[in-house]
Amino acid sequence: MGYLYLAVAILAEVVATSALNASQGFTRLWPSVVTVVGYSIAFYALSLTLRTVPMGIAYAVWAGVGIVLIALVGALFFRQQPDLPAVIGMAFIVLGVVLVTFVSRTMHIE
Hints:
By secondary structure, the protein is mainly alpha-helical.
């Protein structure tokens, strides 16, 4: 169940960060509201994740997947194209998340 909460946290954070970009410094009401609500949901879901997933693992997956998804949202919706070094760096992040999630023996709280 912890990884389901982690997925919710990641998706809420991606929505909130995207809305933060669209809020133009909190000068636009609805994107600002989506930002606050999205981050609230993200942190609540992350707190539920920490009941069953070790903090370091949860945060590494949350941050790593969030970075890649935000880069994709930026490219698709905000015309912020990453260059080759950025893409290579994100590939390493994905590799790190895979190693932490599927190879590490510290996946669950004992």
